[in-house]
Amino acid sequence: MKLTRRTLFLTPALAMAQPQPEGVTRLKTRASKDIAASPLGIGFETLDRDMFDPERTYSHLAELGVKWARCQTGWAKTEKTKDQFDFAWLDRIVDSLLAIGIQPWFNLGYGNTLYTPGAAHPSAVGWAPLNSDEARSAWLRYCETIARRYATRVKHWEIWNEPNIANFWQPNKPTGASYVDLVKMTAPVLRKHVPGCTLIGGAYAGVAALDYFEECYEAGLLNLVDIISYHPYRAIPEDNYDADMRAFRGVMDRYKPGMRIWQGENGAPSTLSTTGALRQFEWDEIRQAKWLLRRVLTDIAMGVEMTSYFQTVDMQNYIWGSGKTNLTNSKGVLRGGDYTRKPSYYAYRNACALFDAETKPAGLLLRVEQVGGGLDGRAVRTATFVRKGAPVLLYWYPADLQKGFEATTCRLLSWSGKAAALKDPVLVDLLHGEVHPVADAKWSGGTLAIPRVPLRDYPVVLTDRSLTA
Q1: Interval 196-226: pLDDT, tens
Q2: 3-class SS of residue 218
Q3: Cβ pair 202, 252 in contact under 8 A
Q4: How far apart are CA 453 and CA 463, in angstroms?
Q5: Angle CA(230)–CA(53)–CA(11) in degrees, nearest 5?
Q6: I need a surface site. Which of 23, 66, 93, 346 has the fewest CB within 10 A?
Q7: What SS3 class is residue 200?
């Protein structure tokens, strides 16, 4: 049994037209409308700054299989004249997403130059409305107005974005106390006007600013919100992630054990010339696709309730706290300009097909042995799930995507026990969507042994064929 070695990425349509090895099929994907619930989301941010045309994305998102979309609400775009609000642009976005089976959730921000003068761009990205009584009153009026309008359509509301970095907390120095001041103002308005809402706090840049987080919790943040969100940008998705998340959760647990967490924004570029997070590393479209799979599947294996990939489409002439950059932030699963699908789009669609809410993390045993290529077998990542009574077993090598990786093989041993039954084992290549039969699997005393399987620098799935068609 062997997976096809690809030097070029083939879209599903092109792959179907190629001669397939005997027994190889394709993973059946599903539209978002056909999935009842899922922990997987997509970024729909920056439309407060008109960074892309949403109308050109809906046909793609409808087929992607995600169930969540993070939308930035854009105070400055909505209130251009004092006390006059125009939500038509946001209405179209919310209603269009709901129509294709995707639930929007709101990131509430940013500033407004009517009340927060001095911003580098009319969108007032990152400017907090705390420096005057007028700004505070205007912010609360805006929050009440938007809450009333979307109370029946949007139930998840995140307060601000990355307040722990200077770029998004202007004009003053970021402090946990000042951020919680904003949350204390905002949360009661949302709870009053959006019955049954879920409030999300933090939206932290990274997970390592432990002193800042503790300052937030000392000021009472965890008693004001229901979920804490974070943005763990790193070139190697798994790099120190386990330890960082233990520390991240540990700080929260001292104040409120069991707090829910969402990974609210994380993405990788697909080009060398890019701006935004991770721009200093070498990227291409295949590296981006591998990174995406490793990020979201690591998150859900760790029990993160929802994980969102940033972003839907490349953002041209990107705008952030310092103003317009005249550069493209190439983190989209769709290419900027022509809105065509990248390999990351197809990879994410494959992941969405298998990892909806019916696929649950499980304590199954999966052991990887005899790793080729001189690699450290102890570094191989594994994760186990159960779906419809069948095991879904993941494994991959967490290689540095900038250094390249020579595909190799390993030996798999799996103990599924009574928790799951593997009747017709197959390997699913999530990057390409191929389903390969496993002809040399051997059962002995309830243990499945496969002497030679491909080891890649992105997740491959061992599961039952019944889950792929």
Answers
A1: 999 999 999 999 999 999 999 999 999 999 9
A2: helix
A3: no
A4: 13
A5: 80
A6: 23
A7: strand
> By C-alpha distance, which of 43, 32, 2, 29 is closest to 331?
43
Q: Are 267 and 331 in contact (CB under 8 A)?
A: yes
The answer to whether 338 and 393 are in contact (CB under 8 A) is no
Q: Could you tell me where the DSSP H helices lie in 258-390?
A: 285-301, 343-354
Residues 6+ apart with CB under 8 A from 422: 390, 391, 414, 416, 448, 462, 463, 464
Phi, psi of 212 (to 5 degrees): -65, -45
Q: How far, in Å, CA of 412 to CA of 128, rounded? A: 52
What is the C-alpha separation between 300 and 209, in angstroms, rounded? Answer: 22
Cα(465)–Cα(28) distance, rounded to whole angstroms?
Answer: 11
Q: State the Cα angle at 321 between 198 and 84, rounded to 5°.
A: 65
- The string over 48-70, giving b where at least 16 C-beta atoms fall within 10 Å of a residue's C-beta and e elsewhere, is bbebbebeebeebbbbbbbbbbb
Q: Rounded to whole angstroms, how far apart are CA atoms 153 and 94?
A: 8
- Give the SS3 label for residue 187: helix
Residue with tokens 């509301």: 157
Triad 431, 437, 443: Cα angle to 5°: 120
Taking only the tens place, the pLDDT of each residue in 168-188 is 999 999 999 999 999 999 999
Fill in the DSSP letter of residue 465: G
Two tokens, residue 4: 């096809």
Rounded to 5 degrees, what are φ and ψ at 43? -80, 130
**CA 373 to each of CA 5, 148, 287, 382: distance values in angstroms, whole numbers, following the listed order:** 16, 59, 20, 18
**Token couple for 119:** 């911003």
Residue whose pair of structure tokens reads 């969540």 in the numeric block: 68
Q: Is 446 left (phi over 0), alpha (psi -120 to 50) or beta?
A: left
Phi and psi, residue 246, nearest 5°: -60, -45
The helix, strand and coil proportions of the chain, stated in percent and rounded to the nearest 5, come to: 30, 25, 45
Q: How many CB atoms lie within 10 A of CB 375?
A: 16
pLDDT tens, 310-335?
999 999 999 988 888 889 999 999 99
- Smallest CA-to-CA distance from 229 within 208, 202, 265 is with 202
Q: What is the pTM of this model?
A: 0.96
Q: What are phi and psi of 378, to 5 degrees?
A: -70, -20
